[in-house]
Structures are given as C-alpha cells and as structure tokens.
Amino acid sequence: LPELPEVETVRRGLEALYVGRRLLSLEVSGRRTVRRHPPQLLDRLAGSVLVGASRHGKYLLLRWNGRRALVVHLRMSGQLRVAEPRSPLAPHTHAVFRFVDAPELRFVDPRTFGELFLAGAGRPLPAELSHLGTDALQAGVADVAAITRGRKAPLKALLTDQQLIAGVGNIYADEVCFSAGLRPDRPAGSLSQGEVRRLAVSLGRVLEAAIAAGGSTLADRRYLDVQGAAGSYQLEHKVYGRAGHACLRCGGVVQKLKIGAKSAYACLNCQR
Ligand SMILES: [Zn+2]
User: Fold this and answer.
1) 254 alpha carbon to ligand 1 midpoint, in Å?
2) Do 267 and 178 form a contact (C-beta atoms < 8 A)?
3) Nearest residue to 74 (alpha-carbon basis) of 112, 100, 31
4) What is the pLDDT of residues 91-123, one digit of tens each?
5) 154 classed as catalytic
6) Which pLDDT tens digit goes with each residue over 121-151?
7) Separation of 251 CA from ligand 1 center, angstroms?
8) Is 3 a catalytic residue?
9) Which pTM was predicted?
C-alpha cells in the first residue's frame, strides 16, 4: 500500500496540475469514501481555488482559499487519477473533482479503505492529523533518537508506528533497516549513538531515492501516480519481498523474519 514516497509522488502530480485551479464541483458516489461527516459538506468546496497540496506521512492535505482543507488518505488501494471529462469512469470510481481549465481528478478505490474528509485549517496540521508523529522525510537524528531511546519494541514496530514517525510502512522500514545495517527486530533502545545516526541518514536516503524513482509499484499495481504510471523503486528493493534470494551486498540469503504480528525481510549477515 502507498507509503510516503508514493504519496509524495501523487502530491507532486497534483501540485503541478491543480494548484491555482478553481473547483467546479466534487461529486462523491462511494458510500464509504466520505465517512467522518455527511458527504454534503464537501459541496462547500465548489468554487474554491486550490492554493496548496501538502503531505504529512501518508496523508495528502489539499488547502483551498476560504481556509478549508480536504484530507485524502489512500490507505490500501486508493488512487487519484487524472482523466479527460468524457472518458468512461473506471470501476470503483468513488469521487470526481471537476476543475475550471484542468482535467478531471478521480478517486478510484477498489478496497474502499481510503477516505476523504474536510479538516480544520490549522497549521502546520489540522487537529484531525495531530496524532501523527514527525513526517519521516523531515525526521533528523534528534527525532530518531527521541523515538528509539529507552524503547524495548523492535525497530520495525517503531518505524511503522505513525504516531511516532509518519509515512513509513512495511516496504520502507525493511529497506531503511537494511541500508542502516540494523536488524529490524533489534530492540530500539539498544542502538548506539552511531547506529541512531546511521538510521536517520538511511531513512532520508532511502525515502529520497524512492521519491526520485516515483515510488514502488508492486505486482498488484495498487499504486500508480496521477497519470497512471507505475513507479520503479521496486526494482531497487534490496530486501523487501526477496526472501530466499541472494543478498545484493554479501551474497547471503535474505530471510523473512517474524516480529510479533509483523514480518520483515533482512540479511542477518549485513544487519546486526
Ligand atoms: Zn547481506
């Protein structure tokens, strides 16, 4: 499912096409797509101009003039797709944004876990997103030190806990741990200062590289960018989904570890 690099790629696509454009209408047909408030509230956005497209963790935040913010969470299978108005609706299209002088934007979501909701205009984040930790792309050594210090929980559990650090899921937690040479099942509090620094550097490096590659599109093709293009970072995965294959660094065998209810891919030769 989409993690920070995929959502950031979508954000950049939205920013390029829609910021500065006026919304004509937003039509919602999916019953579960708007579930935190009556869907009619979204009618208030008609006539507004999109003034910014930002992101925190895996959440997109569309800010409109008139101090309104629309949050989009793609979850498992949500996609925002650019479409020409006369093109047929794809199956599972649950919302359609119509703009002045811009193509339609459609929210397509087969699993219907994704959602849209109006939020307050609070800065930097509306109250509805205040439970989220630091955005993983902004997290520095001090942030990583703060979330790991004194913790018994395994590294993977902390890296994927959105309330501690927002944006990392299964794929990038495993890739970051490999890049840092750290086992994903290491108790987080056991990291030395040097290891914390390595983890912070790897976090930034892996996420930046994944964004540059347009994110990871797996075989299920649940993630595509706004133009329907796949990302290519899946071709650069070192451990994720590679159990039984040779480690690209040492030639050992990549393992799939059980960490509580989660699993993680790692090379136990390269990661300590
Ligand atoms: Zn290795």
Assistant:
1) 7
2) yes
3) 112
4) 999 999 999 999 999 999 999 999 999 998 888
5) no
6) 888 899 999 999 999 999 999 999 999 999 9
7) 6
8) yes
9) 0.97
